[in-house]
Amino acid sequence: MEDLELFAAAQRLPTARRPLLGLTVLVVEDSRFACEAMRLMCLRSGARIRRADCLKSARRHLQAYRPSAVIIDLGLPDGSGTELIAECANSNPRVGVVLGTSGDLGREQEAIDAGADGFLQKPISTLGEFQGAVLKYLPADWQQRRPAALSDEAIEPDMLAFQDDLAHAADILSEGEDAKNLDYVAQFVGGVARSIGDGPLADAAQGVVTARAAGQPLGAATAAMAGLVQDRLEKRVAI
């Protein structure tokens, strides 16, 4: 091998500071805020990121290339992320690492039952938590390169991504109280709110979920959630 080729190969080897160098991570995530957090974590870890915001887009990606790891949100606009988890887990060749993720509590087993290797609960608190989740399920030769101590650096995405998520939710809410749309937007808003630590907005989204489950009228609960979304858009509330 020529000297230049040796240098290029060395540049692709994982290091303690960049333990995911050489990997391609497909993030299937509809939240701009959560995806920006993932982008920063991949960047800090040395991994290349590809993004899809729905099942349809993710399947197009997977037809074109095979990522080293795929991280799939369970709540997507065109279906459940568990469908894609099962497809990736059962594909031949299999995607190396399949992780589920959600801002909703108590959904880890749902992802594991669908075939995920592991689960990331949003918000992901540190860079090391993200790195460890991916490294844990990589082949043995990657495990040997794993640094003894992973980073405890906290990742703080740009708040503009949060505003983008709020605008997306407002657009859906403006379409009316279609049951399918409400189910999606309630889980979307709840997940984003929990990721950023906005308790009142998370509670309002949960109010819609609870009302739907109990078969109660949705007007008041939906109005409360929509009002908080609009308030944060207009005032750009700092959380």
UniProtKB/TrEMBL annotation:
SUPFAM superfamilies found in the cross-reference section: CheY-like
Residues bearing PTM 4-aspartylphosphate: D73
Pfam family, any one: Response_reg
InterPro entries: Bact_response_regulator (IPR050595), CheY-like_superfamily (IPR011006), Sig_transdc_resp-reg_receiver (IPR001789)
PROSITE patterns in UniProt: RESPONSE_REGULATORY (PS50110)
The protein's name: Response regulator
Single biological process term from Gene Ontology: phosphorelay signal transduction system
Keyword Iron-sulfur: no
Domain of life per record: Bacteria
UniProt domain Response regulatory: residue ranges: 24-137
Keywords from the UniProt entry: Phosphoprotein
